Amino acid sequence: MRIAMIGGGYVGLVSGACFAEFGSDVTVVETDPHKLAALREGHMPIYEPGLETLVTENVKAGRLSFTGELAEALVGAEAVFIAVGTPTRRGDGHADLTYVYAAAEQVARAMTGYAVIVTKSTVPVGTGRRISAIMHEARPDLEFDVASNPEFLREGNAIGDFMRPDRVVIGTESERAREVLRRLYRPLYLIEAPILFTGLETAELIKYAANAFLAMKVTFINEMADLCEKAGADVHDVAHGIGLDGRIGRKFLHPGPGFGGSCFPKDTLALVRIAHDHGAPSRLVEQVVLVNDARKASMARRIEAALGGTVRGRTIAILGLTFKPETDDMRDSPSLPIVARLVEDGAVVRAFDPEGMEQAKPLLPAGMTYCRDALDAARGADALVVITEWNEFRAIEPAQLAAVMRGRVIVDLRNIYDPAAMRLAGFDYHSIGRPIIRANRDTGTG
């Protein structure tokens, strides 16, 4: 089966490589000449565990190729996936569909036979109908169907999510399109992965509703963490206690500095606009957006409070810059407002991230120091702040930090360390949703 994937970004590249692994003949269309050249040379434009190997193996097997020519990719293609960016539109919070609609028109003008046009990008309700209208207007003679097939890929685990999904959602009103997509996803039928067929609008809304619900869970446990700090409770025990309820579930109940990334901030804001435009405002999601933005902005104040109210002239070690581990994605990362505020308030910042430093440099204040590893960042620091929970940070022994740091303050925004171990090493340990641990240095034992 031949398919074309329009867009060689995160969604398009991962999806294209995985479809090729399923046995399909996939051509990825990338119009950026620098990105296209990199892909053809085997260099991945993003960091995603296992992706480089998957791409290399399928290119070698002849099932995956890259081109800048749309017409070349469409030859013989039974399905054409649109996987271009839908960033937040400047000024109003809506998803910007400029690239989606441009791709639809270009595909219509270049097609020579029937194909299913599938939106893989996250798009608002009604986009599929608009794509159909654009294509009919460009080519009244063209035979095609439109489908929505939203992605549910977690950065850092995208290949596993594609190969062993919780579900596949396909929205279309055409039985012919359903049959094409059934054949494409046949390997998942064999492992009994749930495949849900719906209407176009339903599939488009499922994506936004899923991300908004998960974002609400994150925001809820963050607010409970604030309450735990005031009431003397432990947020991890609270999360465990409610997560054991099968109606609630244990996932996405991890407190932290607020959600970021390519999906939750953009999709919650877009859903607020979609709901408002349809006369059915989503007040819960509106509050999630506001609370999360305020939380990220408030994290720098926590760090300042841990240092007695000011960071001016203090050296702060930052561990982790990306919005989550196992990715180099800096989009809406909590590190951006945190570090900017610390630098603005006079801190000297030393930072380390295993994958995201090159992506972070254009986004963070000038004058920071980017370090070769975590202990290098901690060297001479008055305080150390964990923003991203990379596994290699969990492996650091408190004694190692004590040996290189000047101060004895740890602000752990991901709760990756054992408070008792930090106290024994002589640290004042500040975490999320748990009591502050003060080192007892008078005894000489911590």
Written account of the structure:
The chain is of the alpha/beta class. It folds into three domains: 2-198, Rossmann fold, CATH 3.40.50.720; 208-293, N-(1-d-carboxylethyl)-l-norvaline Dehydrogenase, domain 2 (Orthogonal Bundle), CATH 1.10.1040.10; 296-443, NAD(P)-binding Rossmann-like Domain (Rossmann fold, 3-Layer(aba) Sandwich), CATH 3.40.50.720. It has 19 helices and 14 strands. The protein has helices spanning 10-21, 33-40, 51-60, 70-74, 98-110, 127-138, 158-163, 175-184, 186-190, 200-231, 235-243, 264-277, 283-306, 335-344, 357-360, 374-378, 391-394, 398-404, 419-424, and strands spanning 2-6, 25-29, 64-67, 79-82, 115-119, 144-148, 168-171, 195-198, 315-319, 348-352, 369-370, 383-386, 409-412, 428-430. The strands form three sheets. The chain has a six-stranded parallel sheet, with helices on both faces. A six-stranded parallel sheet has the order 11-10-9-12-13-14. A two-stranded parallel sheet has the order 7-8. Strand 1 (2-6), helix 1 (10-21) and strand 2 form a beta-alpha-beta unit. Helix 5 (98-110) runs parallel beside helix 6 (127-138), helix 12 packs antiparallel against helix 13 (283-306) and helix 13 crosses helix 14 (335-344). The N and C termini lie far apart (65 Å). The model has no long low-confidence stretch (mean pLDDT 94).
